Request: fold
Amino acid sequence: LERVTTPAVTAAAAVPLVTGGERDYANLDHAASAPCLEAVRRAVDEFLPHYASVHRGAGFASQVSTKVYERTRDVLRRFVGARPSDAVVFTRNTTDALNLLARSVPRHTSVVLFDTEHHAALLPWRGPNVRRIPLPNTRLAAVSAVDSALAECPEGPRLVVVTGASNVTGELLPVAEIAAVARRHGARVALDGAQLAPHRPISVRELDVDYVVLSGHKLYAPFGAGALIGRGDWLRAADPYLAGGGATKLVRRDGDGIGVAWHSGVERHEAGSPNTVGVYALGVACEQLAASWDAVAAHERELLERLTRGLAAVPGLAELRLFDGAAERVGTVSFVLDGFEPGWVAAVLSAEYGIGVRDGAFCAHIAVRRLVERNGGEGKQALRVSLGLGTTTEHVDRLVTALRQIVARGARWTYGVVDGRWAP
Ligand code: PMP
Reply:
């Protein structure tokens, strides 16, 4: 039990990775999903012989799994600097966590958010009291825009939803400032930590936010586990997110119908057999990152500088930015290349250079369209490069060289659309 619940946290300097695939494949798409940490893989390997269904069995494996699962709630609380009283609900991912929160807010809650949010944060909110405000060009104006929107909200519960880091440009949003404004209006704040959590320590208490959501697969754990961490009152008062076993205390016949007593705690939202192994992996990944922030930051800073310097020297390349002036950012950069279709460039980078980037609108259609237009582009799409722990200086240099060569040669290679994608 001790072995599987307290895996050794590796030294901060070098977080060992499974990079996956060919040795020289340059994965520059960490913002979509980050490859599993070697330490996570080893921990999961050790756990696999022991796992069983949680909360349901007296057997040893079930006890071990239950301990692991419950302890991981503490790991997540620590990882985001949560209050001891904060609830942790395990979900499939960030999308799931935000939909759960949207279903749990009291009726008639006013929701304020920027229309540039990722679709996972933009779309789950319903009703007349949802205000999706255009994101202004400066961080200061963004804070004022939230202030004004909140001032117009009717009486009643209020919630601001904001991302920590943009999945399009990597820029950090002024979360603490927005939270301070929200407090003045009696509003709660939900932080979409999907893109921030893999890059920077988050402190719920320092930021003074009420909820944070994140995904394991962006945090160097495998797919399938995420979390909603935050105040438990709305969650405990809400109808269960899923109806089923695990969410109930008692079910019995009630005349011709059925009587159900749901759990009074947040377990009411975790019906069904949970993803014990995924949750464990998520917890191990969080512990690894938490022990390595200095190394993570130094690695990213160096590579991001190299990348932005390199991209600035590519003719016809325009970087997309939410805010005027230099904003603090994580290692994610989107851009358009004058005269080149993003999907075509991505296909060439993959086929000719062994580089994986993302093209399209990154589940943030409104943001990408607006930023592409602002940069004089005509399309609704862009290219995105995102760095991670497995990225090397060679990957960055290869990308910059490739882009320069593509621009120099022009769009003369023969590529066609196969199954909806450009291919040689
Ligand atoms: N929010 C942001 C900012 C994201 O970047 C993403 C993933 N691209 C999500 C939410 C949704 O995450 P998931 O797909 O893991 O649910």
Observations:
- The domain at 39-290 is CATH 3.40.640.10 (Aspartate Aminotransferase; domain 2).
- The CA atoms of residues 314 and 404 lie 6 Å apart.
